[in-house]
Amino acid sequence: MDQKFKYHYDDSIGIMFKYYYGPISIEDIESSWEYVFENDIIPKNVKGFILDYKHANFSFNIEKYITIPEFYKKHLEIFGNKKIAIITVQPKDIVIPVLVSNNDDGYISRPFSTLESAILWVLS
Q: What's the number of domains the chain is made of?
């Protein structure tokens, strides 16, 4: 799991960063969040999340994207009323965060191409 994911909480701005590496499946996304929940990695005062896929790519059929917003909705105790910024750089990978954001319910997500703009949005 360590080679595919890295977690970092920046206490000075209150953002939880999650970095992804290599090909990422739906199962990878869900299991990496389950790991975070089970190990109590997310501080209670977290303001939002930045999911960095700059060094990763989505490796699943596009139709499966719907399981991502369903997962977030199942865990509103964590994601509720929070912003989730998703950073991608590959044009083919922008489709998934766009589709996910169209199904936001109880949280807000948005795709970004730069870390700076993602941080500004999460903190706004």
A: 1
CATH number at residue 78: 3.30.750.24
CA distance 85 to 115: 9
SS3 27: helix
Q: What does the alpha-carbon distance between residue 44 and residue 70 come to, in Å, rounded to a whole number?
A: 22
Per-residue pLDDT tens, the chain, 124 aa: give them: 457 999 999 999 999 999 999 999 999 999 999 999 999 999 999 999 999 999 999 999 999 999 999 999 999 999 999 999 999 998 889 999 999 999 999 999 999 999 999 999 999 9
Q: Does the model's pTM come out above 0.90?
A: yes
- Strands of 15-24's sheet in order across: 5-10, 15-24, 48-58, 83-87, 108-112
Residue 18's domain spans which residues? 5-123
